[in-house]
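job 3f2a | input accepted
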Amino acid sequence: MDTEKLVSEISYKAVRSSGAGGQNVNKVSSKVVLSFDLLKSQALSDEEKAIAENNLSTRLTNDGILILNCDEDRSQLKNKDIVTKRFLDIITKALHVPKARKKTKIPKSVIRKRIKDKKNLSEIKQNRKKPRL
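job 3f2a | predicted structure (133 res):
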């Protein structure tokens, strides 16, 4: 995964923020909307696209486009930086493949100890019984 190629494929759009803020919200387009077409990306290989599409299936549109919004700051530039960092984090997490779990083998000493304890407990219970005459 080449981050520079990924960032070059992103398209940004500035939109007016919603909510309270008075004149600044009404005048300035500080909200940034990031859109990334996962299926047409040249920065990702086919395997990476398949993994990312599977892991991001709930966040993608029907056309395979990832859309992220950011209106945390009053500055459009800061919002752009925030949404870009968020996008890179999402992509790296989506492409992460967890290591396969190895089954641990039970040591023979543990098996022997368990069987010995069972026999010992069995003897104790046998000794509790009334003797047969």
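job 3f2a | The first strand starts at residue 11 and ends at 15.
job 3f2a | closed
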